[in-house]
Amino acid sequence: MNDTELAAALADFAGRVLLDLRRSNLLEGKALGEAGDQTANAFLVRAIRHQRPDDGLLSEESADDRSRLDKSRVWIIDPLDGTREYAEGRDDWAVHVALVIDGVPLVGAVSEPARSTLWRSDTASLAALHGAPGVLVSRSRPPEVATRTCQHLDVPMRPMGSAGAKTMAVLRGEAVAYLHAGGQHEWDSAAPVAIAVAAGLDATRLDGQPLVYNQAESYMPDLLVSRPEWTGRLRDALARAG
Q1: Cβ neighbours for 14, distance < 8 A, ≥ 6 positions apart
Q2: Among 36, 80, 148, 227, which has the highest number of CB atoms less than 10 A from its own CB?
Q3: Which residues of the chain have a pLDDT value below 50?
Q4: How many Å apart are CA 147 and CA 142, to the nearest integer?
Q5: 55 near 73, Cβ under 8 Å?
């Protein structure tokens, strides 16, 4: 398999395992979320180490192997993005698998198992916007700057779970942007950003600076994924919002 085929196969299989685990009804609540994180991570890490032994790896659910910093090719994964949503029986959670090359996420796969959807950076496309424009934000911690930005634009702010689910919703034409402030980590956005950019969306920091991955510190302060025709308006509103 080439890199994109591998990323897609990994995200798809991990997603199906997570669905089976949830459908078993043997666990619930926090225990289900923890089991989902651990189970998906164990599979993904073992499979990537087997399939691409010379590449680096960064996972939310594993200790950071700093040897990745010396490598050009690094897999960045979130085995279960939206653990809370997964444990609550919702559908806005995802599996993220990305390959970053020299700091740029060039290959990505995002599985939305509860929606029977698998996104790939080599096949994703941008759908036409339908419905009223809106900006997607974190369900658990919507940033104040998003509230002010949406007020300036006179568009609704819509909460949703997983970062992957929010980014794919922009691709589906359900919103004009996904805006996040207050901090994430590289695994939250690497795979969604790879797919978003490949499909024609803009993806940057809130101030327009590029997103750079495989850094010594995995923390990323903010993110804006937007439809190109809205990027300028969003940046202007962000500037007014402070």
Answers
A1: 40, 43, 44, 79, 95, 97, 111
A2: 80
A3: none
A4: 8
A5: yes
Q: Tokens 């809130």, residue? A: 206
**Are 107 and 83 within 8 A, CB to CB?**
no
* Neighbouring C-alpha atoms within 13 Å toward the C-beta of 228: 9
Contact 80, 69 (CB under 8 A): no
**DSSP letters of the chain?**
--HHHHHHHHHHHHHHHHHHHHHT-S--HHHHHHHHHHHHHHHHHHHHHHH-TTSEEEETTS---GGGGG-SEEEEEEEEE-HHHHHTT-S--EEEEEEEETTEEEEEEEEEGGGTEEEETTT--PPPP-SS--EEEESS---HHHHHHHHHHT--EEEES-HHHHHHHHHTTS-SEEEEEEEEEHHHHHHHHHHHHHHT-EEE-TTSPPP--S-SS-EEEEEEEE-HHHHHHHHHHHHHH-
Q: Using CA atoms, how far apart are residues 82 and 64, in angstroms rounded to an integer?
A: 20
Tens of pLDDT, residues 16-27: 999 999 999 999
- Structure confidence at residue 189 (pLDDT): 98
Yes or no: say if 114 and 168 are a contact pair by the CB < 8 Å rule: no
pLDDT at 131: 84
Measured in residues, the chain has a length of 242
Token pair in block for residue 151: 């007020």
- Distance CA(170)–CA(113), nearest Å, equals 18
Token pair listed for 213? 């991955």
Nearest to 97 by CA among 81, 78, 121, 120: 78
CB 58 within 8 A of CB 41: no
